[in-house]
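ugh ok fine here u go
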Amino acid sequence: MFRYTKKTFLREVLLFLVAVVFAFPLYILINLSLRRDGDISSPLLPPGSPTLDNYVAAWRQAGLAHALLNSAIVTVTSVALIVVISATAAYPLARITSRLSSGVFWLVIGGMLVPFQVALIPLYQSMRDLGLLGSLWSLVIFYSGAQVPFSVFLYTGFLRALPREFEEAAAIDGAGALRTFRSVVFPLLRPVTGTVVILNAITVWNDFLVPLLYLSGTPQQTVTVALYAFVGQFVSDWPIVFAGLVISVLPVLAVYFLMQRQIIRGFAGGLKG
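structure:
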């Protein structure tokens, strides 16, 4: 029978304090997004006369509908390619025990150690020569290449801890390596796949520098770049910026609440593996 003890009470107080710490930035964000222009009162205090006009202005002036669609297309396409490429590459790296396989693995992991800023100019020139500047495909190609090393690292670690009995049974039944991976191994990678999807989706959705470089001067903009239009050197319309930030966060929160159970399982299973 459950007994409510002093230790249980202290745990509840601790969890409440942690929740307050995490909710505080969200409160500030929503609070400032509801303020009228010229309201300079403390951000800790609720607005005297809250308004939703900032949300309407952010949606219309920044073209957030089109920007949200662009961000969603880039994020979904990039994450799908990252999952397919990384899982397929990690399978032979985890199962083939040879010096060549080990060398290739460390070569791929070396991509995590090189800051992408080092290759900004060469990558920009390559995208220009390919005629991809101003296209969403330039972002998809960039993110797919930049995030694969980290994803391969996660998949390989999980695969090395995965028993081989199911694969051996599939081989006895006559399944080839590709069929075994597609029908047997990949479904078992669901926990770490959840981790890969979550981490990469957040990275791609929130990125600002790469869309600013590759889509600059074109009508194709992501959410982060579209909101940047309200920030200037001399004048910054911060209430509209904060309202736009709230709008841009809503899709991520909606996906999280709809897939909360799968996300928690993905983190637990992926980190355990």
